[in-house]
């Protein structure tokens, strides 16, 4: 039984079947990659895992509990965090402000800011934010405006914001899209470190096969909304069906 269990998920957009009978089992403390051609349904599937979309049929269970019908905030509270394709950070704020502002946010129905309950709590949040930024090699950019960061740094900042919540499942939507090779390699190293340091399961959508084969323990190939095959990276590389549907010469 995996920490994440997707069973019989279907999702239609009007006449288009974006997901057709998707089954997926992600084992705890592994990196599970979801790959496939454009339009295969990868982002739709990820959106179903974080409550952004509700499947027409099927179930999505995280650690034995259904995620369906929960708000993104509740899903976050369950231990699931997501790094988006386009980083969701406040460009007008500094790196440090982006890290600590969510800790001020009280979301009891409405979203509003509140004061920390004690100076000790405030100190704890500030220290943890700094530790996290150090872990992603951004401590020297603490006071920079987030809008002026490079694409890679914006991604790293978002990763640090997610890690601050100590997720058990981290969902990454094309974490290296648009990055130069050096930044891509830094991101691979960073994700390996993150994995080594904590008990965390990572589910990653990625087109760059160098990233996928560097990180993944298991790979699911989606094609036209349905899983074509799920296997180890070694077997995926050599699978003629996968080569035909997606990889071509990339593997
Ligand atoms: N909100 C929506 N309304 C209508 N159609 C949608 C919507 N979201 C996705 N689709 C369609 O569903 C199909 C799957 O899209 P999805 O974005 O999940 O694919 P993907 O595998 O993530 O593709 P890519 O690799 O290009 O990001 C596509 O045909 C897409 O056009």
Q: Please report the number of helical segments.
A: 9
Question: What integer is the average pLDDT?
Answer: 88
β-strand number:
12
Q: Might you state the CATH topology name of the largest domain? A: Rossmann fold
The global form is globular
Binned, the helix content reads 25-40%
Instruction: Give the distinct bound molecules.
Output: adenosine-5'-triphosphate
Question: How much strand content do the residues show?
Answer: 25-35%
Total count of domains: 2
Q: CATH superfamily of the largest domain, please?
A: P-loop containing nucleotide triphosphate hydrolases
Task: Identify the CATH architecture of the largest domain.
Answer: 3-Layer(aba) Sandwich
Task: Report the structural category.
Answer: alpha/beta
Uncertain parts: none
Name of the top-level CATH class of the largest domain: Alpha Beta
Structure report:
- This protein is an alpha/beta fold.
- The chain is 37% helix and 25% strand.
- The chain is built from nine helices and twelve strands.
- The chain has a six-stranded mixed β-sheet, sandwiched between helices. It has a four-stranded antiparallel β-sheet with strand order 2-1-4-5, covered by helices on one side. It has a two-stranded antiparallel sheet with strand order 7-8.
- A hairpin with a 2-residue loop joins strand 4 and strand 5.
- Helix 3 packs across helix 4 and helix 4 crosses helix 5.
- The protein is globular, with a radius of gyration of 19 Å.
- It binds adenosine-5'-triphosphate.
- The site of adenosine-5'-triphosphate has 11 residues, from strand 2 and helix 1.
């Amino acid at each position: 039984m995996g920490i994440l269990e997707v069973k019989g998920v279907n999702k239609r957009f009007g006449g288009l079947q974006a997901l057709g009978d998707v089954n997926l089992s992600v084992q705890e403390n592994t990196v599970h990659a979801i790959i496939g051609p454009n339009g295969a349904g990868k982002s739709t599937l990820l959106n179903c895992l974080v409550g952004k979309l509700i499947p027409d049929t099927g179930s999505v269970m995280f650690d034995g509990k259904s995620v369906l019908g929960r708000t993104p905030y509740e899903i976050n509270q369950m231990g699931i965090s997501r790094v988006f394709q386009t980083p969701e950070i406040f460009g007008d704020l500094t790196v440090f402000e982006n890290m600590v502002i969510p800790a001020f946010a009280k979301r009891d129905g409405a979203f509003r800011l509140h004061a920390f309950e004690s100076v000790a709590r405030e100190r704890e949040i500030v220290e943890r934010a700094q530790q996290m930024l150090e872990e992603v090699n951004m401590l020297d950019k603490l006071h920079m405006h987030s809008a002026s960061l490079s694409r890679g740094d914006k991604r790293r900042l978002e990763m640090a914001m997610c890690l601050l919540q100590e997720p058990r499942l981290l969902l990454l939507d094309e974490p290296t899209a648009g990055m130069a090779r050096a930044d891509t390699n830094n991101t691979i190293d960073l994700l390996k470190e993150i994995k080594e340091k904590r008990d965390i399961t990572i589910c990653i959508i990625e087109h760059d096969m160098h990233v996928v084969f560097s990180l993944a323990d298991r790979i699911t190939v989606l094609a036209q909304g349905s899983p074509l095959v799920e296997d180890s990276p070694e077997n995926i590389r050599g699978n003629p069906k996968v080569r035909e549907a997606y990889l071509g010469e990339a593997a």
